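Could you help me review a protein record that somebody else here produced? Do not assume that whoever made the record got everything right. The record follows directly below this note.
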Amino acid sequence: MILTVTPNPSLDRTYEVPALDRGEVLRATAERMDPGGKGVNVSRAVAAAGHRTVAVMPLGGAPGALVAELLTGQRIEVAPVLVVGATRSNIALAEPDGTLTKINAPGPELSAAEAESLLSAVTAHSASAAWIACCGSLPRGLAPEWYAELVTRAHAAGARVALDTSGPSLLAALRSRPDVVKPNADELAQAVGRPLATLGDAVKAAEELRGLGAGAVLASLGADGQLLVSSAGAFYGHASVTAVRSNVGAGDASLAGFLAAGGEGPKALSAAVAHGAAAVQLPGSVMPKPTDLDPSAVTVTADIPLDRALTEQGNPR
């Protein structure tokens, strides 16, 4: 079982539009409504692959009730922590060339009691979890050290933790030694405080995060593929993609594939790359099923072309 933690979940509405013309009335050609949040997406991808998952999150108001209903319909066990504020609603506008414009609401502010209840809910479900995936930004009311406390409690319960967050929350959590962290190129650059122009730069930055406490670093580099840097060495994986339809949740699908495949080594990296490549070819935040995966399109190697320039260079914004 893979347990996911989403401190700031959402109800996501995605509209496909012919073009994004500012100031005009846009007529959508298709629309979707999905439960959102990085941890939620990991649970959705795990469930789509046929594995058991439990999703812990704060939920409030009518949007929160709808998030729980949608997740239950996808065979995901929901462990809600009821909060006073309403769960946020987000909007995404997807253009035919793959360009995505997102409007993310801030979400409710959690009280100290609600923050503690969320930690307690994670601890209560830790015993049966092969992995705990802690994902996304922290809502108002949660200090940057909240994830660090979660990692500490999860380790005390004997669980392995994968962390996908950024900024002060990531740096604070490294002191608690999460087993895996999963930054994208910009988040990796932000963590080390400098731009990343090549794969070699990304490998060096990942090693620095390991020096700060991360057990392993699974770095999503967009069209440039993914890196896995751990005590076993560094591996690089990439896949050929026919056409990008939406990159929403692609990194979350990658993390789900990685954890479902054991969470370590080149085989898990290959699964991560396959899931990410499948996700970008699906509409909105649809998570890939096993039939969507193409393992033959994936290449994983320890012979990393360190001088290769990154198409999507990491910037420490």
